[in-house]
Amino acid sequence: MDLHLKNHTVVITGGASGIGLAVAKLFTEEGSLVHIWDLRKPDEGDFSFELVDITDHQNVVSATEKVMSDSGRIDHFVHAAAIGSRKYGFPFDNLAPDDWREVLNVNIMGMTNVAHALAPIMRQQNSGTMTYLASVAGQIGSQTDPPYSASKAANINFAQCLAKDLAPYKVRVNSVCPGMIQTPLNKSVWQAWNDLQPVEFKQTYLEWANTKIENTIPLKSWQTPEDIANMIVILSSDRAQQVTGQTINVDGGFVMHW
Ligand SMILES: NC(=O)c1ccc[n+]([C@@H]2O[C@H](COP(=O)([O-])OP(=O)(O)OC[C@H]3O[C@@H](n4cnc5c(N)ncnc54)[C@H](O)[C@@H]3O)[C@@H](O)[C@H]2O)c1
User: Fold this and answer.
1) Number of structural domains, the chain?
2) With CB atoms 3.0 to 4.6 Å apart as the test, which of 30, 59, 76, 204 could cross-link to 10 if both were Cys?
3) How close is the Cα of 19 to the center of ligand 1, in Å?
4) 84 lines ligand 1 (CB under 6 A)
């Protein structure tokens, strides 16, 4: 299936690792020109890279100007940069209010900074797609890391606002929600839990994850970064030209309503 993405310009935040990196590779396979914005360079792949901290609006504006001067347009944007609190937040007052600040700054203000920089360009082009990596945690009030869950709900909500704002300019905006993917972020959730367990309750990362998958995911398997990348690349293509404002779960059936 030709997705007609050849020579399209793509910006991916958080593209140095995990899901963002898989998205970068798949767009490259389709012949697109990928710009990764991240705090560190990817260890693999031949992408255009810019050191960008999405919490710094000026940094984001400068990176946007650089892509525009190199490529003259931005066809697709994928927002994968995010963090968790790296603490076990169950019950919620296991965390202090200060534990929320960094997560909200990266996951909400980061999303806002990039949208402010990119939306005017896509509006002017009268074309473009934006895809936000949110999470099933943003839909079900996951108790593991409340600031993370709340920030992911904000991603979904803001993507809907953007979809409505930008629809008259033929710019489509959607959220994709992964379930369980082996990445540094996912492992940090286990680590925070495991650090607090008494010796007799400690589990390896895979024991912890496999129990969770067995109990909560109907298809009973991990999702891979490539599973998520497939959905995002198809959503970005004209094959999904009537899809906007949607929250699409790629989660083995974990969430079946929203
Ligand atoms: N892994 C999962 O199980 C899972 C589940 C649901 C949702 N998600 C979502 O998928 C997305 C990607 O997560 P992942 O698991 O691939 O994580 P990851 O930790 O592998 O990658 C996140 C990337 O974001 C970058 N980043 C963090 N803060 C940044 C900042 N201030 N500026 C620029 N870049 C920054 C990191 O350097 C890293 O390269 C996130 O939005 C996450 O919430 C992941």
Assistant:
1) 1
2) 76
3) 7
4) no
Span 164-217, pLDDT tens digits: 999 999 999 999 999 999 999 999 999 999 999 999 999 999 999 999 999 999
- Is residue 215 one of the residues assigned to a domain? no
Q: Are 100 and 154 in contact (CB under 8 A)?
A: no
- 8: Cβ–Cβ under 8 A, 6 or more apart, which residues? 27, 32, 33, 75, 76
Q: Which residue range is the domain that position 128 belongs to? A: 9-180+224-250
CATH code assigned at 112: 3.40.50.720
Residue 18 is assigned to a structural domain of this protein: yes
Q: Considering the domain boundaries, does residue 60 fall inside one?
A: yes
CB of 110 within 6 A of ligand 1: the answer is: yes
Q: Say how far apart CA 249 and CA 179 lie, in whole Å.
A: 8
Residue 43 DSSP code:
S
Q: Using an 8 Å Cβ cutoff, are 136 and 176 in contact?
A: no
Contact between residue 114 and residue 54 where contact means Cβ atoms under 8 Å apart: yes
